[in-house]
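FORM 7B: Structural annotation worksheet

SECTION A. Query
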Amino acid sequence: MGLAGYLIVAAILFALGIACTVARKNVIYVLMGIELILNAANLNLVAFSRFVGGLDGQIFAIFSIILAAAEAAVALAIVLNVFGLFDSIRPDDPDLMKE
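SECTION B. Predicted structure
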């Protein structure tokens, strides 16, 4: 499988992540969409690193995975807090704080 195959799979992952984020019926789906987008970027980094040579892309992808795990933990803590306050995890419900 050449570089084009990896790029096609990454483009599909990216499109699914954007679609999941834009649908935003649930905050958990938005977080899953963001993770799909990050995984598509990581796949691109690793694919280019493999075909160009060197380990720079792979090291950066591992660093990005570590940051994504930290981001997911913080985001889920925020979601649990919002659920405790509003009894809902819909993204539009915290807008009630403006009123």
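SECTION C. Observations
Residues 56-86 form the longest helix (31 residues). The mean pLDDT is 88.

SECTION D. Sign-off
Analyst initials: ____
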